[in-house]
Write a structure and sequence with these properties.
CATH class of the largest domain: Mainly Alpha
CATH superfamily of the largest domain: Tetratricopeptide repeat domain
Radius of gyration: 24 Å
Number of domains: 2
CATH architecture of the largest domain: Alpha Horseshoe
Number of helices: 9
Largest sheet: none
Number of strands: 0
Structural class: mainly alpha
Strand content: under 5%
Low-confidence stretches: 22-27
Distance between the termini: 62 Å
Order of helices and strands: HHHHHHHHH
């Protein structure tokens, strides 16, 4: 069989047109997913501010799925995993909460993001379950990360709150000497920063266990 003159060029043109159309469709789908991710994230944030953690969970789940479909940058995915993990912890989805907070930490670690944020939430997630022995390693890593960003100087009141929690976790784990040492450090920082008070909110882990909805 002999190809008609110009048949090869027509085939190539057709394939290029199909490829461009596929790229256009993919691009449009990505744009839609990106907009949906932003919409769901805004709705989730609004819901959590009013204490509607069940709605916040559903909205953050949708935001994360759409962000992944849109090929969102790792920094954004870290934020969405972080927020979703926090909400899951409030509703007592303990294992899932830890999973997403660890994912947020991994993404921040890979991109040079604020690792201390996820580590601190992981510490408190375990602390609020009274799993003090499991919270201690997270607190150790969180405090190390906070020291790297100069938190004792830049945010002394907030840092002392973390040290106080760490000291209590150590005491709950039977490590009295270590607890006393951490408590002493917290008092030393406070003495150098009189009148300073923490202004950050704390995630209310386990506050709405009865509000679980699937």
């Amino acid at each position: 069989m002999v190809d008609k003159p110009g048949g090869g060029m027509k085939l190539i043109s057709y394939l290029i047109a199909v490829l461009l159309m596929a790229l256009l469709v993919t691009s449009c789908a990505s744009d839609i997913s990106a907009r949906n991710a932003k919409h769901h994230a805004s709705a989730a944030d609004a819901a959590s501010k009013t204490g509607d953690w069940t709605t916040a969970r559903k909205q953050w789940a949708q935001a994360l799925v759409n962000a992944q479909l849109a090929g969102a940058p790792a920094q954004q995915l870290a934020v969405f995993n972080y927020e979703y993990g926090r909400v899951l912890g409030v509703l007592c989805f303990w294992d899932e909460s830890e999973k997403y907070l660890l994912k947020a930490y991994q993404l921040d670690h890979e991109t040079g993001g604020p690792e201390f944020m996820s580590l601190l939430e992981l510490s408190r997630l375990k602390y609020d379950q009274k799993q003090y022995d499991k919270s201690v390693p997270y607190y150790e890593r969180a405090i190390e990360a906070l020291d790297k960003v100069n938190a004792p100087t830049e945010a002394p009141a907030e840092f002392c709150v973390v040290l106080d929690e760490y000291a209590k976790a150590l005491l709950g784990s039977g490590k009295k000497e270590e607890s006393s040492s951490v408590h002493t450090r917290a008092n030393e920082i406070r003495s150098k920063n009189p009148g300073r008070q923490s202004i950050t909110d704390r995630t209310p882990y386990g506050a709405q266990c009865a509000s679980k909805r699937f």
